Amino acid sequence: MTHKLPYTLSTIGEFGLISRIAAGVSGHESIITGIGDDAAVTAISAGMQLLTSTDMLLEDVHFRRSWHLPYCLGRKSLAVSISDIAAMGGIPRWALLSLAIPPKLPLEFVDDFMRGFLAMASEYQVFLIGGDTCSSRSGFTVSVTIMGEQKPGIIVRRSGAVPDDDIWVTGTVGDAALGLKILEDADIASLTGSKQPKQSPSNGIVDDSPFLINRLLDPTPRVSAALALAESAAITAMIDVSDGILADYGHIAEQSGVGGCVQLDDLPLSASFRRHTAHLPVIPYHMALSGGEDYELCFTAHRSSREKIVDCVKKCGIAATRIGIVTSSPELKVVNRDGSRYTAQTEGFNHFI
Ligand SMILES: [Mg+2]
């Protein structure tokens, strides 16, 4: 009986892996020289400026292999970078991908990761033009550098918010944080041997866990809405919500030299979020305020742009909600319906905890 050994990076070597990855990559007229030379050569469209951003995803810091199927991890690795270009009003174009791979990791994992990465790339017309691979002594590590382009007048920065602007957010917030909590609770349950949360309840009750978990593991970058908003010239500042609406709006406030007042009741919560937390004595607003990884857009705009903004995002199939007002005092506060102050429990996801 023959025993088939699982292929690993050590079986095929770094160059073997690079050719394996390159085989799945598609070309584009903007790429003059792609993977295979010392550097890639790309052509920026006339009148455009280059936007560049880089992100790292580390095993057990940003993801767990036990939770994240490699296909979804590949998708998310690129999605978070696409989201950064979108948050500037940029058009995502080219990506560089570097991977540090444990030598014993099955090649099937890398293949599935790449399938996910390239599927996301193709959905958003992003082209992989290079990168690096090496062996890792600890976990699987992903580094993505993305480049995009945009006309100088359309690029939106964090620094443009002015007092009395509305603060907006697209979609819903808190879903990814709740998804994370569900996964953590399921892990604790399996470790302690206690009953696992039901995955498919009978008796007609909707199980919201898959939706919430999916929001964490397979986020959707809001590219078309971001582009439409930037092109509309209706918005003054924008950021993507990666660390929680409070922390991310805090970056806009800081860069713009302003503060903000967020209305707790106005935070857009999904039906899944509401149903899944309905049994709790209070709505866990801290997840909506400080939970990371929703990858929605937070932006500011003058009150005269309200209708334009609603139309703009509606055409992209999502909603945008006004959640507060930019203030001239540098303070950032969250208030209850009666105007009393809500004390947030934490200021965004801290990678170092
Ligand atoms: Mg960002």
Helix content: 25-40%
Assign the CATH topology of the largest domain.
Phosphoribosyl-aminoimidazole Synthetase, Chain A, domain 2
Q: Which hetero ligands occur in this complex?
A: magnesium ion
Biggest beta sheet attributes: 7 strands, mixed
Low-pLDDT residue intervals, each spanning 5 or more residues: 196-202, 346-353
How many domains, in number, for the residues?
A: 2
Shape-level CATH architecture of the largest domain: Alpha-Beta Complex
Discrete helix count: 10
**% residues in beta strands:** 15-25%
Number of strands: 13
Mind explaining what this structure looks like?
Helix content is 33%, strand content 23%. The chain is α+β, with helices and mostly antiparallel strands and 353 residues long. It folds into two domains: 142 residues, PurM-like, N-terminal domain (60s Ribosomal Protein L30, Chain: A); 185 residues, PurM-like C-terminal domain (Phosphoribosyl-aminoimidazole Synthetase, Chain A, domain 2). It has a seven-stranded mixed sheet with strand order 8-10-7-11-9-12-13, sandwiched between helices. The chain has a four-stranded mixed sheet with strand order 3-6-4-5, with helices on one face. Helix 2 runs parallel beside helix 6, helix 4 packs across helix 5 and helix 6 packs antiparallel against helix 10. The protein is globular, with a radius of gyration of 22 Å. The chain binds magnesium ion.
